[in-house]
Amino acid sequence: MHNPKTTKNESKAKSLYRAASSPDFSWERTMQSLRGYNREVIKMSKAEEILIPLDLSTLDKPEARKMEALDRVGKEAEKGYWMIGAVGILEEEKLLLECSLYSVKEEGFLSRNKEIEGALLRIKEQTLGKKAIYLMDMGFDDAKMMKGIEEQGDKFIVRAYHDRGIEVKGKRRKLKAYLKEKKIALYLELQVKVKEARKKVKFSLKYIPEGYIEVEGKKLKVGVIYLESKEEELREMMLITNLEVKDGMGAVEVVRKYLRRWVVEDFFKFVKDSLKLEAIRVLELGKIRALLSWVMVAAGYIYGIHSRMNGEEEIIRVLGTLGGWIGRGKIGKEVLKRGLERFLELINTIAILEALGADIGKMRKAIVGR
Hints:
This protein is 41% helix and 28% strand. It has helices spanning 4-21, 27-44, 112-127, 143-151, 175-181, 248-259, 262-274, 285-303, 314-322, 333-355, 360-368; strands at 49-60, 71-73, 78-90, 93-102, 131-136, 155-159, 165-168, 171-174, 186-194, 197-215, 218-228, 236-241. Strand 3 (78-90) and strand 4 form a beta hairpin.
């Protein structure tokens, strides 16, 4: 007797295999489609500014042996790859603007700064002239990068890592020494993340409304905000920005903007913990990038980023079908998560079988009939 359920499963298997084996299954194609979606949303938005938390994280593969161009990444120098991610915050709308992966061991690699410059250019193409404010952690504390963002007409707030020289009122001094002598401007309480938990912490705040740091022989005008607390895990935080810091309340506004960068940190943690991103086993770097892009688009939808996206997008439609969506109504988050898990299971299975020398072509023909 004909079993309708079997036919549906065969259809899903064919759809999935075609997606995974197609030449169009690439990071470039997926991100190009996503950027088009982002531009449409940004074009329709009435918001004047877009906050862009930029994140540098890692895809750890400590047990890997044969994956292409394995790098040493993170504080522990584990085997893996570097990832650059950016989320755009447009009033209450959130968009995945960038998701790229690089390795210093990859053939043709130029530099970390070139990778970040490329990411910034791709982001710039999507913002359509809106005022962009980049929110960056200590890994992006690079004066050349700040200068580049300034030159492209955008703003930045960077958490400082280096104790650099700064010129204030014609005198040049080390930044921390200058701030130590400054009087506390005000006290405030902020909701911050400490050891992966959110809690209210009391801070004292000092600020430099106008100073200059030297970049390649030129002066870059910046403001500096210094926060200090008694919290063991967050003793101090120093922010450098090219936004105006006219007074204490202006400094507080800069701090509040910066704290929204934890959206992107939370998102990547969700991807790694919930969707098992680091379980990917394919060997070729191009395929790893392609899988990363699919995972990120699906994760964004599940997490509430690019929330307007639904079955009209190919990735969401294919993964939704794999998760049990029947082609009608909204694709639920659990359905999409289930579909993504099935997709990654199949890709990892294929990678293992290929490594064992199995003839995937013959197996495919036996499963799907052609």
